Amino acid sequence: MPVPNLIHPVLCTIQPLDRVTTLMDMEFREPLPSERRLANVVIQAQVRWFGMSERHRENVGGSQVSKGYLLFRLKDLTDSGYSPKVGDLVLHMGSQTNINMYLESFEDRGHYPDQQGPTMRRAYFTDREPTREARDYV
Fold first, then answer.
1. CB 6 within 8 A of CB 45
2. What sign does the CA torsion over 89, 90, 91, 97 have?
3. Distance (Å, whole) CA 38 – CA 29
4. Cβ–Cβ under 8 Å, residues 126 and 102
5. How far apart are CA 44 and CA 36, in angstroms?
6. Is the pTM above the cut of 0.85?
7. Tens of pLDDT, residues 93-119
8. Taking the CA of residue 87 as centre, how many other CA atoms within 13 Å lie in the half-sphere pointing to its CB?
9. What is the DSSP letter of 22?
10. Are 19 and 29 in contact (CB under 8 A)?
């Protein structure tokens, strides 16, 4: 059986976090604001938006967060040499440019008997920006 195809593939630009040179806050286990990033990776993915989630309470008022996932074929990931990790920044999804979505968790999908394991990886993303007024997506 051939490797499954994506239904609506679009090109996505992802900027991986450079974990070697980025200073980490050991108490919270996250990069400090002076994080360093590697060269951009352009790869095909299928995008699924969940829309805006519930309002989160902030000091300056409520804010909404966009969420969704990117579905990659594992074959495309291995061919490109890219392995998605938590904290990688998604810059473009198809025609939507200048978005700042961060990869937050992963899930292997598409387990077929003749493939000896998963054939796809779902990478969930979320918006870490507290305000969304200047952007024109979901």
1. yes
2. negative
3. 20
4. yes
5. 24
6. no
7. 988 888 888 999 999 998 888 888 899
8. 14
9. S
10. no
